[in-house]
Design goal:
Order of helices and strands: EHEHEEHEEHEHHHHHHHHEEEH
Strand order of the largest sheet: 2-1-4-6-7
Number of strands: 10
Largest sheet: 5 strands, parallel
Number of helices: 13
Structural class: alpha/beta
Helix content: 25-40%
């Protein structure tokens, strides 16, 4: 196994050493011109800055020729990974580099203008860095594959600002002007509300069922999807608020409200270490319980019927 890494402060070098294999510095590879790598497994490790790979890493991916049975990319971040995953997948697709596995490791944030170094060190234990690395190492050892296409919602996040100019929004100017007129919001906030409104619509079961083949076409991610916008201020803001809540659920560090009062640790303690569930777990409608079974035993978890009817769609 060969690991190509880019590190500035040591985070990614630490990750590379934990994964193991022959370590290759990306800056040194770029300077030497040695841009052909062959092995059974090849990995790339780098930090992400505001959801983007460093420029040198992006250039490296565009030039490197990799011959391997399994290729993975691990990126590190300190606060938010933003749209790093779809951006990385898109960069590899553009470079015609077949990626099998991608994952993130939340590390000590070393952006010193924004964080106190000692505070980051003191709170590093809360990030469970070693636990994250154990899971990544296990996935790689088992040759796990998790790279899929880039969904429409991810494209929305990626395309709010075009690659050539990160300071100018590419949301339709007439649409932004209409929303400003309806709501009285400032331009930047209007653009953000439009983004979250779009999340809400794209997660709506009604939209996906009623307008299938009319406003959007499934399994054609390159086809332009059309979003209906309401002219009523309160309806627009309410849908935008729903979209924001849904979008935040995708954040790895988002804390959700435990509405049902589940004792997660108690549930985990009642699951045997080697318990593996069988496909198509039954639901006990009478007792409102999810029944997890294997060949020898079963575990019952209370789950109200109204949750069974909750449907958040995604295109």
């Amino acid at each position: 196994m060969k690991i190509c890494y880019f590190t500035a402060t040591g985070n990614c070098l630490y990750v590379a050493k934990r994964i193991g294999g022959e370590l290759l510095s990306i800056p040194q590879l770029m300077r030497s011109g040695e841009l052909e790598i062959s092995d059974d497994v090849v990995g790339i490790i780098s930090p992400i800055y505001a959801g983007e790979m460093p420029g040198m890493v992006r250039d490296f991916i565009g030039k490197i020729k990799i011959c391997a049975d399994y290729v993975f990319y691990i990126y590190t971040y300190g606060m938010s990974e933003s749209v790093a995953r779809p951006n990385a997948i898109a960069a590899c697709q553009k470079a015609e580099l077949k990626l099998d596995y991608i994952n993130a490791v939340k590390m000590v944030d070393n952006y010193l203008p924004g964080f106190e170094a000692q505070d980051q060190i003191d709170t590093a234990g809360k990030k469970d860095i070693e636990g994250q690395l154990d899971r990544v190492c296990l996935d790689i050892a088992e040759r796990k594959k998790n790279v899929t296409g880039i969904g429409v919602l991810q494209k929305i996040g990626m395309n709010q600002y075009p690659e050539e100019s990160r300071m100018k929004s590419n949301i339709n100017e007439d649409l932004v002007a209409s929303i400003i007129e309806i709501t009285g919001l400032k331009q930047k906030e209007a653009e953000i509300r439009i983004l979250y409104y779009t999340y809400a619509v794209m997660c709506s079961q009604v939209y996906l069922e009623k307008f299938r083949g009319v406003l959007y076409t499934p399994n054609q991610s390159d086809a332009r999807t059309r979003i209906p916008f309401v002219a009523d201020e309160q309806t627009f803001l309410r849908l935008s608020a729903y979209g924001e809540k849904i979008a935040k659920l995708e954040k790895i560090d988002h804390q959700v409200t435990n509405v049902l009062g589940y004792d997660y640790e108690d549930i985990c303690n009642n699951v045997p270490h080697d318990f593996k569930i069988i496909p198509k777990q039954p639901f006990d409608d009478v007792n409102e319980e999810l029944v997890l079974k294997n060949d020898e035993e079963e575990i019952r978890i209370h789950c109200p019927l109204y949750l069974q009817k909750l449907s958040i769609q995604i295109f």
